[in-house]
Structure prediction request, 393 residues.
Amino acid sequence: MKYKDYYAILGVERSADAEAIKKAYRKLARKYHPDVSKDPQGEEKFKNIAEAYQTLKDDEKRAAYDRLGSHSPGEDFQPSRDWGQEFNSQFNNGAASFEGVDLSDLFAQFARGQGGGRATRAVAGEDYEVVAPISLEDAFNGSKISLELAMPVYDEQGRMRRESRSFEARIPKGATQGQRLRLRGLGGKGHNGGRDGDVYLDIRLKPHPLYRVDGHDLYIDLRLARRGLPKPGADGDAGDLFALVKIVMPPDIGEREKVLYQEMATLSKFNPRSHFAGEPTHAN
Amino acid sequence: MQTNTTHAIWLDRSHSVTIEELVAVSGLSEFELIELVDAGAMTPNDVGAARWTFTADYVPAVRKAVRLREELELDVHALVLAVKLLAQIDELENELATLRARQSLFKGY
Prediction:
């Protein structure tokens, strides 16, 4: 497993008392908490800060962490045989090997193993928050997205490991910017009768070259060149008209009209939106 | 690969959840949810109903409140204030998005 220096993450000395650790955590949490921070790296930083604090604020976990010794951050290491014998029942459900166990997961299991032996209380599966970027066309038609999540999996000894799990989720038609969707039961598996976790999707619309989006409303600019006020002294020249257009369609279109519309669409090479970036060259 | 098409639940103002569902997905107790309502941070669909229901957009909001409570170690008063301020930020960001969408791209002409 990769070593993480929890003291360095919180910016405190190894000898820091509980109050200093709490103070350092609160200061960093206020700065990097993803719900209040605008720092693009805030979520990752906060994850490490929270992981460090969850271990160092608990006297027993901190003692066990300290007994792992000091390593360089990111260094691959395994807990010693002595460490395993002393703490195995709390931290690894009595399993002999730490192969494939992540440091954060190891300490996260403490509560489950606390008191020795295998935990029997119900533990809910993990929930996942996933940002799902979709195109405007996907929002219009509905779509499917592929998700890959590192899910906790428990072996026969109750040890937790993370395994990559892929699945597809349907984004229903009409889900637009900021829409939240819940995929019930697709998160981590519950343990000892606990409920399965959920996946929460946060829909984000990718920018569109033509349309701007506000909720379920679309905006597009229509510029009518030289349809504004005449310019003095300029022969026939005029300003432009920027129009807010209400499009009124005939309530009934006859078969003959449909044929003529389709014929015109086929014949005409005129593209009234050619000035928009990214617009295809033909008006169809 | 597992395909899931049936579990997508809309979490918006056109759908509702019961207070029991909110408790189940948020980790807050019913008592804490009632405190948030009493403090004006949340409003049930019908405050006079025997069992409260809420618009489903409260699900992500309440989950965020729980994260704030646990990860910033807030007491209930600070939590109420944080929830109100976050709701105001959401509202302002929505208004900003609306104004940006309505802002003509032709302003540079």
Q: What stands out?
A: Confidence is low (pLDDT under 50) at residues 279-284 of chain A.
